[in-house]
Design goal:
Layout: H1 15-51, H2 60-81, H3 90-93, H4 97-130, H5 142-146, H6 148-168, H7 187-199, E1 210-212, E2 216-218, H8 220-228
Antiparallel strand pairs: 1-2
Helix pairs in contact: 1-2, 2-6, 4-6
Domain Tripartite ATP-independent periplasmic transporters DctQ component: 39-167
Keywords: Cell inner membrane, Cell membrane, Membrane, Transmembrane, Transmembrane helix, Transport
Subcellular location: Cell inner membrane
């Protein structure tokens, strides 16, 4: 499971909120693992009952579809909580730290709106419409299957609100790096590194040049030009 973004980044401003989020992460992780195990069991028994026992099971097909829907949406919420989904961050990385945070917050707001309108509201309508449509081989209805949509939407909404709060407080990076150990520094840390590079202070006495945490590169030429422009 991915490392929590708040670890080793900035100053933790909402410890109780972070603890609650980690607890939810762990619970969702084990629920997703249990659903995956249930899906494997259902599919394996479906094949074995048909090919080995020669008595095809009547419930495994619907059960596997039900579990697959819940598994897919639960895993979607889990990965979103870990900020593991694919994101195109090329333009956002070109922005200054404040603009990068603003862009990240807007992304989270868009996700929250999608979760409320499509997943929660739309999922509730679909659940109500299918609540009385019984499955032929299971003692449940289509509504129980569609219920995974609003449940997943609520989880994604909670994660999105969490990241809006934490990004605003600069407690987590605006966007996660590809390498987990290369988290960008907070705005004050970026300014400290920039000041050190511009002042020419290095431990080895070499010409100041390097990459400021957060993706901004400061070469010796740009350092010299910025120092001369002061």
């Amino acid at each position: 499971m991915a490392r929590d973004d708040a670890e080793n980044y900035g100053t933790e401003t909402h410890p109780h909120l972070t603890h609650a989020k980690r607890t939810l992460d762990r619970a969702l992780y084990w629920v997703t693992a249990a659903l995956f195990l249930a899906l494997v069991v259902a599919v394996v028994w479906q094949v074995a009952s048909r090919q080995v026992v020669n008595q095809p099971s009547t419930w495994t097909d619907e059960a596997s579809r039900m579990v697959f829907v819940w598994l897919g949406l639960s895993a979607t919420a889990l990965v979103f909580g870990e900020r593991g989904h694919i994101a195109v961050e090329f333009l956002a990385r070109k922005l200054p730290p404040r603009g990068e945070r603003l862009m990240a917050i807007l992304v989270q707001v868009a996700v929250a709106l999608f979760a409320v309108v499509i997943m929660i509201w739309g999922g509730i309508l679909a659940t109500l419409a299918g609540w009385n449509q019984a499955l032929s081989a299971l003692p449940v209805t289509f509504g129980h299957m569609y219920l995974a949509l609003p449940v997943s939407g609520v989880l994604i909404l909670l994660f999105s609100l969490y990241y809006i709060i934490q990004i605003t407080a600069d407690s987590v990076p605006a966007f996660t790096d590809i390498e987990a150990e290369e988290l960008p520094a907070t705005a004050p840390q970026r300014q400290d590194v920039r000041s050190q590079l511009l002042s020419g202070e290095t431990s080895s006495g070499e010409t100041p040049s390097g990459e400021i945490p957060g993706g901004e590169t400061l070469t010796s030429e740009t350092a010299s030009s910025e120092r001369s422009g002061r």
